[in-house]
Specification:
Elements (H helix, E strand, L loop, with lengths): L9 H9 L3 E5 L11 H9 L4 E5 L5 E2 L2 E2 L13 E4 L6 H11 L3 E4 L9 H17 L2 E3 L5 E4 L4 E4 L11 E8 L2 H14 L3 E6 L8 H7 L8 E6 L5 H14 L3 E5 L13 H5 L2 H11 L2 E3 L3 H6 L1 H6 L12 E6 L2 H13 L3 E2 L4 H9 L5 E2 L3 E2 L7 H13 L5 E6 L2 H4 L1 H11 L6 E5 L4 H9 L4 E2 L2 H12 L17 E3 L2 H11 L7 E4 L13 E6 L12 E5 L2 H18 L7 E6 L5 E10 L3 E8 L3 H5 L2 E5 L4 H10 L17 H12 L9 E11 L6 E3 L2 E6 L2
Parallel strand pairs: 1-2, 1-5, 5-6, 6-7, 10-11, 10-12, 12-13, 13-14, 15-16, 15-18, 15-19, 19-20, 20-21
Antiparallel strand pairs: 3-4, 8-9, 8-11, 17-18, 22-32, 23-26, 24-25, 24-26, 27-28, 27-30, 28-29, 30-31, 30-32
Helix pairs in contact: 1-6, 3-4, 6-7, 12-18, 14-16, 16-17, 22-23
Length: 699
């Protein structure tokens, strides 16, 4: 009989992970300078109040604590076991933990899937052990877990030798173990504390999404910082992000992989154009996660993300930023960085300037309000901030502070802190190195920044978040599939109500049929085995009579024999020749990690050259489809720009949304779908798909 093991999850997992009452250190060393000795030293020095059981059969004591010869000799089942032994002993150690009834084990050792075939086998065996026994595994390659609130410093990371870990409200989950130490040291320098930090490692079992999901009920955690190397286990990350958004707990992420070294998925143009990092970017933003570009921004973004709720269909966040300063050069740097990231820096209105003048506030206003040295006086800056925050033309205000932030920090930042309870966000960027002023602002919960780049990065990342939409039903994962014929693809388009040019299929070896549409037409070979017809000369354009069509059939038969002699093709697909104002590519695919996505791109040869496209998680509604249209620069010419004819962009939005519904139509079994090109006709005339390519799940 097979025994069904129930995996620990949710609050029980969070308790064992970051609130354990007892810990066993499997392979603990008496030498605190060694990896296996650091957790013993750190736990004792940090004041951890739980029970610590060093496991070392060769010693009676480990760093002053009683040593135990084995797990089986312990007087209780520990909540959490940290395995500190070498790679080749890990499996036996985890088996011993499972036999003892341990529910959670962290594995320090590396040398698994990243180390070649033997390591891959070891990792598979470790994964199988977790599935068979129900034991939860953190790692391998996990440097451990830290909870500054309770003194839990269960880590081998040397950075935690530093005493007095800062306590805060954000929880960190990182694929990289070294990053939890780096964030703590950087955070301590900035006065930023943490509610917990977990080095996730290789995710053989527990992953970033599941770990964070388990902690959502912790009242001491108000937000999350993620350091991501991949989107593996994207389904768990998506579930967590949706739940965090529903609870109003901001999530900020720094993800590696922006370079073009990302993997290509070139079954269709959709795969080639939608690079791995582009999909990751859409995935994060569509789940309400603020993705920052700079490591320092990861520490700085939470206060602003907490002040600004996620947008909704009814209320999208305003992007108009007002800037007030005592140093014109510093403000110019902020303005420059904001504009590079597409954030609008708004000039004060005439009404606002009149209010400032009436209040006796000196200064000049161009793109920013420059108070000059007068702004270093409390009453001047305080009143200026009050007027700017009340001004309807601004959605947030940034105060750029000059040298006074370093030499008179109390005076420089006090008006900012005293104004920070306004309904609109107020941010501060300090031009000099002013650690005391930054610490005061951080303590007061005011979003504050050391650099103009960091300030703009955070503002842009927070504004780029999108409220999570309808979850897809189609499953992510590595699925295989086969192309279907273009005639079958058009039938799927009919099912989805995606408009396409009329089509007729005819026998390749048969007579020329009577056409239900006028000449000229295009004739194409129609076979699931010939997805890219132009590669075999399988398209004849501009056929303008029955005689020419008969000749086209003959040409296609000849080319089939010459260029694809082993391919079975019995049909020709016929369509009227159509023209529109513009061509676009609309694509859909199920990404192994992110799940279903939809992409809109400029059509024609420029699509791959300039990568002018927009990506979203599928499905999307028409409002989101409109946002995608606005992001494709080539389509701006269809908005009536400079007297040019308008395209039917409303029909395009409908078509994008309709194709994206494949994500909630799993019965259609479509892994990839691409309409390329889709013709955008004149306003009121709709859109037409004239070529369709689809991959269906293998059965």
């Amino acid at each position: 009989m097979t025994v069904q093991h129930i995996e620990m999850s949710g609050p029980a997992l969070a308790q064992a992970l970051i609130h354990p009452q007892s810990i066993a250190l499997y392979g603990a060393s008496d030498d605190p300078t060694k990896m296996g000795g650091r957790p013993v030293q750190f736990l004792q020095r940090s004041g951890y109040a739980g029970r610590i059981y060093p496991i070392n059969p060769k010693r009676e004591e480990v760093q002053g604590l009683k040593a135990w010869p084995s797990l089986s000799s312990l007087p209780e089942v520990p909540d959490h076991v940290f395995v500190l032994t070498p790679t080749d002993t890990v499996l036996d150690a985890v088996r011993a933990c499972a036999a003892k009834g341990v529910k959670l084990v962290s594995v320090l050792a590396s040398g698994f899937s990243e180390s070649g075939p033997e390591g891959i086998e070891r990792e598979a065996a470790l994964r199988d052990l977790a599935r068979e026994t129900g034991i939860r595994i953190l790692g391998p390659s996990s440097l451990g877990v830290v909870n500054p609130r309770t003194g839990l410093v269960l880590t081998a990371n040397a950075a935690f030798a530093e005493p007095d870990l800062p306590v805060g409200k954000v929880f960190v989950a990182s694929h990289s173990g070294s990053m939890i130490g780096a964030l703590v040291s950087r955070g301590k320098a900035r006065g930023v504390g943490f509610a917990g930090l977990v080095s996730v490692g290789s995710e053989v079992d527990l992953n970033v999404g599941e770990i964070c999901m388990a902690t959502l009920d912790d009242p001491g955690i108000e937000g999350y910082l993620l350091f991501l190397e991949s989107l593996h286990h994207g389904d768990a990350l998506q579930r967590f992000a949706r739940e965090a958004a529903a609870r109003g707990k901001p999530v900020i992420a720094y993800k590696l992989g922006r370079s073009e070294a990302a993997a290509e998925m070139a079954t269709t143009h959709t795969g080639a154009l939608a690079g791995e990092d582009d999909i990751a970017d859409a995935f994060l933003k569509d789940l309400g996660i603020a993705r920052v570009d700079m490591l320092e921004s990861l520490l700085e973004a939470f206060p602003l993300a907490q002040r600004m709720p996620l947008p909704s269909a009814q209320a999208k966040p305003g992007r108009r930023v007002g800037v007030v300063t005592t140093t014109g050069g510093g403000a110019a740097m902020v303005v420059d960085q904001l504009c590079v990231r597409g954030v609008e820096v708004q000039r004060p209105s005439e009404t606002t300037m009149a209010r400032l003048k009436a209040a006796g506030i000196p200064g000049s206003a161009g793109r920013v309000l420059d108070l000059t040295l007068a702004g270093t006086r409390y009453e001047v800056m305080k009143q200026a901030l009050s007027i700017l925050l009340d001004a309807p033309e601004f959605d947030m205000v940034i105060a750029v502070v000059g040298s006074s932030a370093r030499f008179q920090p109390e005076l420089a930042v006090k008006p900012i802190m005293d104004s920070a309870n306004h309904s609109k966000p107020l941010l501060a960027m300090l031009v000099p190195d002013a650690p005391l002023a930054l610490a005061q602002l951080t303590q007061a919960g005011v979003p504050c920044f050391r650099t103009p780049e960091g300030c703009a990065d955070v503002v842009a990342a927070v504004l780029a978040r999108r409220a999570p939409g309808t979850p897809a039903l189609s499953k992510r994962g590595k699925s295989t599939g086969n192309f279907i014929s273009e005639a079958q693809a058009h039938a799927v388009l009919d099912t989805l109500n995606v408009p396409h040019a009329p089509v007729l299929t005819a026998a390749l070896s048969g007579p020329v049929p009577a056409l239900p549409f006028p000449y000229p037409v295009v004739a194409k070979l129609c076979s699931a085995q010939i997805p890219h017809k132009t590669e075999v000369g399988g398209v004849v354009l501009g056929v303008n009579s029955p005689e020419a069509l008969s000749e086209a059939f003959s040409t296609l038969r000849t080319r089939l024999v010459e260029r694809a002699p082993n391919v079975q093709c019995d049909e020709v697909l016929l369509q009227p020749m159509c023209r529109g104002l513009a061509e676009v590519l609309v694509g859909y695919r199920i990404d192994a990690d992110a799940g279903p996505i939809v992409m809109l791109a400029a059509g024609g040869i420029w699509a791959e050259v300039v990568r002018d496209r927009s990506i979203r998680l599928a499905p999307v509604n028409t409002d989101t489809a409109w946002d995608m249209i606005h992001e494709v620069r080539a389509l701006q010419t269809l908005s009536g720009l400079r007297g040019r004819p308008k395209g039917d962009l409303a029909a395009l939005a409908q078509a994008i949304s309709a194709l994206s519904q494949l994500a909630v139509r799993p019965a259609l079994q479509v892994l990839e779908a691409e309409v390329n090109p889709m013709l955008v006709m004149a306003e009121g005339e709709g859109v037409l798909a004239v070529d369709a390519l689809m991959v269906r799940t293998s059965t």
